[in-house]
Amino acid sequence: QVQLVESGGGLVQAGGSLRLSCAASGRAFSSYAMGWFRQAPGKEREFVAAISWSGGSTYYTDSVKGRFTISRDNAKNMVYLQMNSLKPEDTAVYSCAAATVYSSSYSHLANWYDYWGQGTQVTVSS
């Protein structure tokens, strides 16, 4: 069982940066692949980024490549999403998720993940 709690969201101007954090409970955290998803009002949930259990492999959706960076600190049971050059279209509720297996083929699918956090709001003003 893994419990996830996100933080770090807020209001930022276009071009600005935010760093989201996801705190995980459970001693097996380091064995889980982790992902970030987002959902804007009236839209479906969208994959943002994923990272393998070791942090050695990462995967991003095209719209955030070069702007966002996912990372993890297994000693602290933390996952991060550094978001730079933010755009108004990045506005959404961002949620982290944990999966027992990392797959570059499937880690973009929400149903690949077993545990979810409650989300944190990110609003980017133009």
Name some characteristics of this structure.
single chain; 126 residues; mainly beta; 7-stranded mixed sheet; 4-stranded antiparallel sheet; 11 strands; 0% helix
* Beta-strand percentage range: over 45%
Order of helices and strands: EEEEEEEEEEE
Our measurement of the CA-to-CA distance between the termini, rounded to an integer number of angstroms, reads 40 Å
Q: What is the number of helices?
A: 0
Would you tell me the structural class of the helices and strands? mainly beta
* Largest sheet entry: 7 strands, mixed
What is the typical, i.e. mean, pLDDT? Answer: 95
- Give the overall shape: globular
In the predicted model, the low-confidence regions spanning at least 5 consecutive residues are: none
Query: Would you count the extended β strands for me?
Result: 11
Radius of gyration: 13 Å
Helix percentage range: under 10%
Briefly, what is this?
The protein has 126 residues and is mainly β. It has strands spanning 4-7, 10-13, 18-24, 33-39, 46-51, 58-60, 68-73, 78-83, 92-99, 115-116, 120-125. A hairpin with a 6-residue loop joins strand 5 (46-51) and strand 6.
Blueprint (SSEs and pairs):
Layout: E1 4-7, E2 10-13, E3 18-24, E4 33-39, E5 46-51, E6 58-60, E7 68-73, E8 78-83, E9 92-99, E10 115-116, E11 120-125
Parallel strand pairs: 2-11
Antiparallel strand pairs: 1-3, 3-8, 4-5, 4-9, 5-6, 7-8, 9-10, 9-11
